[in-house]
Amino acid sequence: MKKIISIVIALIVVILIYFFYLEFKDKKIHVIKRPYISVAAPLEEILPFIWDNVPPGSTDELDVLKKTGHPLILTRKAYALLYYGYQDASVQKVFFERAKRILNYLLYEYEPAIRNEQTFLLKYGIPTDKLSPGWWSAMSNFFLPVILNDAAILLNEPDYSKYSKLMFNSISRLPVNGGSVWRDKSGCWFSEYTWTGMSESEEYSVLNGHLFALHALYLYFKQTGDGIQLIDCAVKKTKTIMDNFRAPMLNWSYYMLNPKTINQTHYVIFEKMQFEALNKIAPSSLFQKEAAFRAKILEHNYPLVYRRYNDKYQILLNKGGSPHPFIIDTYPIKITCSSNDGAKIENNVKEQLVTPNDTNDTNNRFVVIQTLFRPESCKVESVLPNKDPILYRSYLLYKSKPIFFSSNEIVKILKYDLSAAYNAKKISEKNILISPSHKSKPSEPDNYVNNQGRIILKKINIAELESFIGLELYSKKEVNLGMGLIDNSGEEFFRYYPKLKGESWNLVLLTPVGFNNVEKAKLPFKAINIYIYTHNLHCDPFVINIGDLWTANFQQSFALFHRITSKYNFVVP
């Protein structure tokens, strides 16, 4: 009997240990040795805070930064000065002094802010498209306490820790009480945009802002030992809500949920970086899964392809991918491949601009490598090149075996029926006359039909969401543009587009993924509406020539490359 009781007890103990493991396996935080200084942490743990954050270039940066009214810019620059000052003894004294000036300005002078015995909170002195100055954010107000705790040690300013604690307590409150943390049964959410009188239904739910605050909170916990309950609450909410940020039909992700807004590419890269940094600090299947998901969609939407070309191999990556292919939004790209015989193949990153201002330069839009060796395995990285090794940054997007194309592919040309309405009139098979002064409804001067010409391409068939759509237009004038895709049920999905350039052939380059709510479309798309906005045009009638309409899937980078570089001298607006 005693033996049976012993076995039962042993089984109970094993079961309890197993359930304890399941409960806490995703809550591991590295062993903390205090004092913990975040700028001394391994780069992988803090990379999102310094990725594109370099020290200001001159000692008068505070005068410039004061004009921004932007607490996050100020806090990030102070952090950069502490980080690079810690890394490089030759500039440490100067950088630390400059960081101290910024921090003292934030603590004692910056406005708008709340400073009293119960609250320390920084607000924004600039508006957004919807908010007036005076709103505040979990991002800067969770990040500054981390910086102050670092600076308290590095700059020998113990009072900074007092302000750090006060700000942490302030921002941890509910928005109705002046903080930025929503709390309910599903967990805690950190609000990037908070304002007086805000209700929870108005929360934007911006993912990178929530992750930024959570990341800062982890560092704060490692510094102070405070905040673990709020961390657990925020991780719980992140687990609950993460599927809402996925767009599985589009093979992409959302930037925010209210309203649902498709992510820009650099935010997908940044979120991947955030999840990986979080996983370094607190290993978790959640963080691993979300980082891997973003690597997968980057590989799918920005694939690496190669072909046999003039007795060599040509490797190609199109940087102008989904969801906004007219924008180069990947940072400079470095490709490193190896062949079966051990040869190393890589491109020259110096040819690419960090912030492209000319998206029509093929060095900015495409990465092309000519090599004698067949690439077998490759890695694709975003890079921030710099002559100073301390400032040089590279970040892995994905690893893959490049996709081989055995022949020169071409885009698929689509036939269409052309018509026009309102301030637009079809005058020949391919030409549309735009008359800005025409009034379709003279009795209703404010009616939208008086302020636009509409060009309609009917009887088309676009059956894939994951495809490029190219429309070639020649305009005599620079005009504002909108685009609408019409699905099989007649529903229209709209997006704005950059201005057409005058006296030029324009390539209007689209993917359905970039259109609002397009995941609800009933394929195929049967028509395209082109909106020519005329309300700001004060000119005589002019002609827009309609050229080819074509499609190519995401893997047909060579077809896109050939079309853009050889058909016309295209401008991609």
Give a nutshell description of this structure.
With 573 residues, the protein is of the alpha+beta class.
Count of DSSP helices? Answer: 13
State the total count of DSSP E strands. 26
How does the major sheet shape up?
Answer: 6 strands, antiparallel
Number of domains: 3
Proportion of helical residues: 25-40%
Percent strand equals 25-35%
Radius of gyration: 27 Å
Average pLDDT, rounded to a whole number, is 91
Kindly report the CATH topology of the largest domain. Answer: Glycosyltransferase
Shape label: globular
CATH architecture level-2 label of the largest domain: Alpha/alpha barrel
Oligomer: single chain
Supply the CATH class of the largest domain: Mainly Alpha
Please report the distance between the alpha carbons of the first and last residues. 84 Å
Briefly note the structural class of the backbone: alpha+beta
- Give the uncertain stretches in residue-range form: 18-31
Task: Give your account of this protein's structure.
The protein is α+β, with helices and mostly antiparallel strands and 573 residues long. It has three domains: 29-278, Glycosyltransferase (Alpha/alpha barrel), CATH 1.50.10; 302-405, Sandwich (Immunoglobulin-like), CATH 2.60.40; 412-566, Sandwich (Jelly Rolls), CATH 2.60.120. The chain is 32% helix and 26% strand. It contains 13 helices and 26 strands. The protein has helices at residues 2-24, 43-50, 61-66, 71-87, 92-108, 138-154, 159-171, 207-224, 228-241, 265-281, 285-301, 362-365, 557-566; strands at 113-115, 120-122, 181-184, 187-190, 246-247, 252-257, 260-262, 304-309, 312-318, 333-338, 344-346, 366-371, 377-384, 393-400, 403-405, 412-414, 417-422, 424-426, 431-434, 452-458, 467-475, 479-486, 492-500, 504-510, 527-533, 542-553. The strands form seven sheets. Strands 16, 18, 19, 21, 24 and 26 form a six-stranded antiparallel sheet that branches. Strands 17-20-25-22-23 form a five-stranded antiparallel sheet, with no helix packed on it. The N and C termini lie far apart (84 Å).
